[in-house]
Write a structure and sequence with these properties.
The protein has 350 residues and is an alpha/beta fold. The protein has a single domain, classed as NAD(P)-binding Rossmann-like Domain (Rossmann fold), CATH 3.40.50. Helix content is 42%, strand content 16%. A 7-stranded parallel sheet has the order 3-2-1-4-5-6-11, with helices on both faces. A two-stranded parallel sheet has the order 7-10. A two-stranded parallel sheet has the order 8-13. The radius of gyration is 20 Å and the shape is globular. It binds nicotinamide-adenine-dinucleotide (NAD) and thymidine-5'-diphosphate. Thymidine-5'-diphosphate (TYD) binds next to α6 and β8.
Length: 350
């Protein structure tokens, strides 16, 4: 792993991953971050690495074939870690089109360009030979499996059954990635992670939204009965899992990533309020999200037993760090909420 293309590196998980790689991988000589800087992309997340000589930022669109081609030709990447996506379920319900073009077509553009540059003989339709050491990693989500009832866990064999335009677009992208492995022999991996939390998360998602609202004394909007369950993972653990898959993953394999931390939304909201010394009167039950998935839960046996990864953070510890980070980085939050987010927030809850 010498020259890495990270897409969507100005977003929540991508920026945490860039910090992780630049501080953990001694071999990396170049890391290019290709990001369109949509409302979710924020270069403030990368302030401490912007002068690192190994790091290079390119503002651009993964759907722009000419740009992606130019970057591969110039930098000779051996690794692609693809985070860039439209990632918010609520936005996908009101504006599904961009989810299809970015998440599905954007993925195919990256795959096709990588294939052209990485195949030993790109002209030979029947050859399955790729340059040694190259790897494409697709960052996917447990949401492609749909929703669970009160029991059971998602394994890598669980059939895909996405329910929202967001998860359907991520499932579509996963199937294209799979097809590039099956048809061309391309060395790919797909990782499917549960809900992440931690620093630099855009405050349209549950945990940063609730911390921010509690801090400024605004109501905390809990959808439906608040008993929906998510399986929470501290973002740094997600980064270490992706790094493990890059180092040890078997080409063509899918790995589920989760930390065995199932929590109901209302439990999280109450924990945040309690930790921040705020009262529960701020909790406001609002109309439920259409098609709201009831429960997600990951079986992480494959990655823990086959690749030896395990999460480093217990939930209580990760939450404590997360709350402290948001309270200590109020400037970051202020700059975010003064942008387009506010208008979206007003449309969502008016
Ligand atoms: P995010 O919304 O915070 O960041 C997405 C980034 O992609 C932003 O920086 C944005 O500017 C960029 N982007 C969007 N469209 C682009 C385009 N056309 N070209 C280039 N850049 C573009 O998302 P996140 O929460 O960091 O999620 C990253 C990835 O992880 C996504 O693929 C998501 O599906 C997946 N994932 C997220 C979670 C989670 O809990 N957040 C869980 C599992 C999987
Ligand atoms: P979210 O952070 O949007 O992630 P995802 O939909 O990908 O799981 O939401 C997490 C859970 O929190 C989900 O069940 C929806 C719920 N939720 C609320 O109850 N209120 C909110 O304001 C938000 C943003 C989410």
């Amino acid at each position: 792993m010498k020259a890495m293309l990270v897409t969507g590196g100005a977003g929540f998980i991508g920026s945490n991953f860039i910090h992780y790689i630049l501080s953990h991988d001694s071999e990396i000589s170049l890391l290019v971050n290709l990001d369109l800087l949509t409302y979710a992309g924020n270069l403030d997340n990368l302030k401490t690495v912007e002068n690192d000589p190994r790091y290079h930022f390119v503002k651009g669109d993964i759907r722009d074939k000419d740009l992606v081609e130019k970057l591969f030709a110039e930098y000779n990447f051996d690794t692609v870690v693809h985070f860039a996506a439209e990632s918010h379920v609520d936005r996908s319900i009101t504006e599904p089109e961009v989810f299809l073009t970015t998440n599905v077509v954007g993925t195919q553009t990256l795959l096709d360009t990588a294939k052209r540059h990485w195949k030993v003989d790109p002209e030979d339709k029947y050859s399955r030979e790729f340059r040694p050491g190259v790897r494409y990693l697709q960052v996917s989500t447990d949401e492609v499996y749909g929703a669970l009832g009160a029991t059971g866990l998602f394994t890598e064999q669980t059939p895909l059954s996405p329910n929202s335009p967001y998860s359907a677009s991520k499932a579509g992208a996963d199937l294209i990635v799979r097809a590039y492995h099956e048809t061309y022999g391309m060395p790919v991996n797909i990782t499917r992670c549960s809900n992440n939390y931690g620093p630099y998360q855009f405050p349209e998602k549950l945990i940063p939204l609730m911390i921010h609202n509690a801090q400024i004394g605004k109501p905390l909007p809990v959808y439906g009965d608040g008993m929906q369950i998510r399986d929470w993972l501290y973002v740094e653990d997600h980064c270490s899992a992706i790094y493990t898959v890059l180092k040890k993953g078997v080409p063509g394999e899918i790995y589920n990533i989760g930390g065995n931390n199932e929590k109901a939304n209302i439990e999280i909201v109450k924990l945040l309020l309690h930790t921040m010394g705020k009262g529960e009167e701020l909790i406001t039950y609002v109309k439920d999200r259409p098609g709201h998935d009831r429960r997600y839960a990951i079986d992480n046996t494959k990655i823990t037993t086959q690749l030896g990864w395990k999460p480093a953070y217990r939930f209580e510890e990760g939450m404590q760090k997360t709350i402290e980070w948001y309270l200590n980085n109020q400037k970051w939050m202020e700059r975010v909420v003064s942008g387009e987010y506010v208008k979206f927030y007003e449309r969502m809850y008016s």
